[in-house]
């Protein structure tokens, strides 16, 4: 089985993966800010996207 690859995404793109509004996603992520870290400008790095996917499914 191959490992999934992750690309840098903005909040809107990431919210679309979960079929929720970006504001809802931000509420979900608020509890995990220490684990995820801060965004780089407007994008989440691939490592952060992987962490988010692991934390909230």
Structural notes for this entry:
The protein has one domain (11-56). Helix content is 56%, strand content 0%. The chain contains four helices and no strands. It has helices at 11-18, 22-30, 33-36, 46-56. 7% of the residues are buried.
How would you concisely characterize the structure shown here?
This protein is mostly helical and 57 residues long. It contains four helices and no strands.
Tell me, what's the shape? globular
Mean pLDDT level: 91
Helix-strand pattern: HHHH
Instruction: Summarize the biggest pleated sheet.
Output: none
Helix vs. strand class: mainly alpha
Query: What percentage of residues falls in helices of 4 or more residues?
Result: 55-70%
Number of helices: 4
Radius of gyration, in angstroms, nearest whole number: 11 Å
Straight-line distance between termini: 19 Å
| Proportion of beta-strand residues | under 5%
Give the uncertain stretches in residue-range form.
none
How many DSSP-defined strands? 0
What is the count of distinct domains? 1
Defining traits:
4 helices; 57 residues; globular; mainly alpha
Layout of helices and strands, plus pairs?
Blueprint: H1 11-18, H2 22-30, H3 33-36, H4 46-56
Helix pairs in contact: 1-2
């Amino acid at each position: 089985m191959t490992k999934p690859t992750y690309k840098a995404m903005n909040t809107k793109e990431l919210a679309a993966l979960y079929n929720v509004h970006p504001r809802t996603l931000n509420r979900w992520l608020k509890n995990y800010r220490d684990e995820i870290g801060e965004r780089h400008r407007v994008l989440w790095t691939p490592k952060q996207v992987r962490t988010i996917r692991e934390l909230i499914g």
